[in-house]
Design a protein that fits this description.
By secondary structure, the chain is mostly beta strands. It has strands at residues 2-6, 28-36, 39-46, 51-56, 61-74, 77-82, 86-89, 94-98, 103-110. The relative contact order is 0.25.
Length: 116
């Protein structure tokens, strides 16, 4: 099950990113904290055994794991990310997220700058 919502975070106030999102049994939870036409920043939690189906984005996506350990497959190449590790998913590549154990991540998509 996927749960998606937009969360208002007070600007110019300190917050703890890992506390913005919770784990929900048998679910992937997505909370978008910045949403603009030029891109968005979301925090995502995956319960153990959950995955997002294969997708292709027309934009580069920066991923940083903030809790647990994630498996990110990019064009069928497996990458294991532990807390503090990051990866950039190139635009127009197939990618899949798998939770062999539960994890939380930040996903940042920049939608501008591709016209150059």
């Amino acid at each position: 099950m996927n749960n998606t919502e937009i969360v208002e975070v007070d600007k110019a106030k300190v917050f703890i990113i890992v506390e913005i999102i919770e784990y929900v049994p048998n679910s992937v939870v997505i909370k978008t904290i910045i949403k603009k036409t030029t891109g968005n920043v979301s925090v995502v939690s995956f319960d153990t055994g959950e995955a997002l189906s294969s997708k292709i984005s027309p934009f580069d996506t920066f991923i940083q794991v903030i809790d647990g350990k994630a498996e990110v497959n990019i064009d069928n190449a497996s990458n294991i990310l532990k807390v503090g590790k990051s990866i950039i998913i190139p635009a127009n590549t197939t990618h899949v997220f798998k939770a062999n154990e539960r994890f939380k991540m930040i996903s940042t998509i920049i939608k501008s700058g591709y016209e150059d």
